[in-house]
Design a protein that fits this description.
alpha/beta; five-stranded mixed sheet
């Protein structure tokens, strides 16, 4: 099992089931960067200057996630940004897990923010030091592990425990 966190093409992070970092790399932009949003991201020009190009990172990610269960939050965003697809049956997306939504009284199609899920179910705050991809990946993994038996039990019955991702991202899932 792997977890992913990727908010844009600027940085990609993958961890293993225990939260150990498998890949954490910046990605060299293909176009000039207008705003590094340093206050929120900590990103500075030198981070991207020597980073690998997108196509190389995309290939590494594809190789790492192949034939693995991918755990994360809003995986459709990660896959879309990476230009990849993954078997839906091999995804565990905490943004779509119906049990979380029902517990919080959310509407079936409402996406509950990751910090809200973590605060409610794990009793901790994330994002206090800006957007840290490793922290987000580990938080999504912790959420999954907290209900892994329930999640996998539902799948074992032939049912699917998650809502569908937004329709415009269906190409991300095979």
């Amino acid at each position: 099992m792997l977890t992913s966190s990727s908010l844009s093409r600027r940085r990609v992070t993958l961890t293993d089931y225990r939260g150990g970092v498998l890949l954490d790399t910046y990605v060299r932009p293909t176009q000039p960067v207008c705003d590094y949003r340093t206050a929120e991201t900590g990103l500075q020009p030198h981070h991207l200057a020597e980073a690998p190009v997108f196509i190389d990172v995309q290939g590494r990610v594809a190789s790492i996630i192949k034939d693995k269960i991918l755990v994360g939050y809003a995986l459709w965003e990660f896959l879309s940004v990476m230009g990849l697809s993954h078997p839906a049956i091999k995804t565990r997306d905490t943004a779509l897990f119906m049990s979380f939504r029902r517990t919080l009284g959310g509407k079936p199609n409402a996406i509950i923010p990751l910090p809200t899920l973590v605060k409610h179910f794990m009793r901790r705050d994330i994002g206090q030091n800006g957007d840290v991809p490793v922290e987000r990946a580990r938080a999504a993994l912790d959420l999954f592990r907290s209900c892994e038996q329930t999640w996998e039990g539902i799948i074992a019955t032939g049912a699917w425990p998650c809502a569908l991702p937004p329709a415009e991202y269906r190409q991300c899932f095979t």
